[in-house]
Amino acid sequence: MTGKKIFFSGRVQGVGFRYECKRIALGFDVNGTVQNLDDGSVKLCVVGEESEVEEFLQEILINSNLSHHIIEHREENSAIENFDEIIGFSII
Fold it and tell me: Annotated catalytic, 23?
């Protein structure tokens, strides 16, 4: 299992970004959360097998309509707390 935190900036709030991330996540074997941050960015926490996590992120960054809204993203490999407690994909 691998965990990542990704911070997206650009026009990522008010455009359905979180809902589209959740929709995309349903096509992958990943769990996680996505939330708006006070600074106008979006934080995505995702856990799963490394290949599934990477394919999910590529779908967001390259293949989806979300890619047009992203100006910058920053990825952190992360020991996301309580891997086993993250079930499904939630919007916070």
Answer: no
